[in-house]
Amino acid sequence: MTPDVLSTWQAYQRMRVLLNGQINRELGRSTGLSEADFDILFFIEQSGETSVRSVALRCGLAWEKSRLSHQLRRMEQRGLIEKAPGAVIHLTEKGRAQITAARDCHEAAVRRYFGDVLTAEQLATLATISERVVAGLPRSHSGH
Q: Is residue 107 part of a domain?
């Protein structure tokens, strides 16, 4: 690995860990949701449907089956989702209220710590870089 690749990788990793940590702490304090809770509720909400099949959720989030099963069980126990026959996951009223509050908190934190500190050119460059890296990954890692 060249020194440039190493130093860039380390900078990226530091940014990723610190940024995710900050956003997730704010999300947890403000809404009581974990990052995993948010990811699932947001995915269901963004699907435009009142429910999703667990396989679509697993593929969309690129999660292992066991991780998703455990997380869904915990969320069902807290009343955020309901599991229906046919591996269908429904968002409950409580889950819908939680994701509405969490979405606002998450968007504000992303804007504050990410969008507001980068120029439009930097954002476009980062989007291009991200798309190129993702395109170079094996298909099994891209959620498909």
A: yes
- For the domain that residue 42 is a member of, what is the CATH number? 1.10.10.10
CB crowding 21-39: b at 16 or more within 10 Å, else e: eebbebbbeebebeebbbb
Q: What angle do CA 122, 127, 129 make, to 5 degrees?
A: 95
Residue 8 lies in a domain: yes
Q: 0.70 cut: is pTM over it?
A: yes
pLDDT in tens, the chain (144 residues): 999 999 999 999 999 999 999 999 999 999 999 999 999 999 999 988 878 999 999 999 999 999 999 999 999 999 999 999 989 999 999 999 999 999 999 999 999 999 999 999 999 999 999 999 999 999 764 444
User: Is the residue at 141 inside a domain?
Assistant: no
142 part of a folded domain: no
Split into its structural domains, the chain has a count of: 1
